[in-house]
Amino acid sequence: MRLHVIAVGKRLPAWAEQACSDYVKRVRGDCSLHVHAVTGSRRGGNDAGARVHEEGEALLKAVPRSALLVALAIEGDSWSTEQLAGRFDQWRSSERDVAFLIGGADGLSPRCREAARHSWSLSALTLPHALARVVVAEQLYRAWTLAHGHPYHH
After folding, report:
1. DSSP code, position 66
2. Structural domain that includes position 103
3. What pLDDT, in 10s, does the model give residues 80-130?
């Protein structure tokens, strides 16, 4: 199974790039973790709705064929680490890739939300996008460790 974190925004602070890279390297064996970035829309002339639509299309274009989609949204379902690990086991059993979509500054497009099988909220707080990528990568790594009986999750 391949896990894909697909997010708007190509420029991340060095600390976020390093953290994501570290979690990508740690996930191995029967699973792999990939972090992809798509270019965000210019904030200049476009209105927010047009930016969200354009970014949503770029996100969906980056999704591997037949991957199950999970939308990251503040109004999504809150999952404990154990619940995420349970979903991870289900996804692994289905042998499908899973793509986690993180929108830009103006949010995730309605089309992305509609295409998603699940909607996941990391927190009721608004998180910086770089931090959201790191949290998703870390939690996917943590779910992977739970599935493999690794003590990291304690």
Report:
1. T
2. 2-153
3. 988 999 999 999 988 889 999 999 888 899 999 999 999 999 998 888 889
> Is there a contact between 7 and 34 (Cβ–Cβ < 8 Å)?
no
Length of the chain as a residue count: 154
| Three-class secondary structure of residue 11 per DSSP | coil
Tell me, what CATH number does 59's domain have? Answer: 3.40.1280.10
CA-based end-to-end distance of the chain: 24
Give residues with Cβ within 8 angstroms of 128, minimum separation 6: none
3-state helix, strand, coil in the chain (%, to 5): 45, 25, 30
Helix axes 14-26, 129-147, angle to 10 degrees: 20
Bridge partners of 99?
Answer: 4, 69
Hey, what are 32's tokens? 């792999």
Q: How many domains does the chain have?
A: 1
CA 112 to chain centre: 12
pTM for the structure as a whole: 0.93
Under a CB-based contact definition with an 8 Å cutoff, are residues 123 and 132 in contact?
A: no
Is residue 63 over pLDDT 90?
yes
Give the Cα separation of 88 and 79 in Å (integer): 12
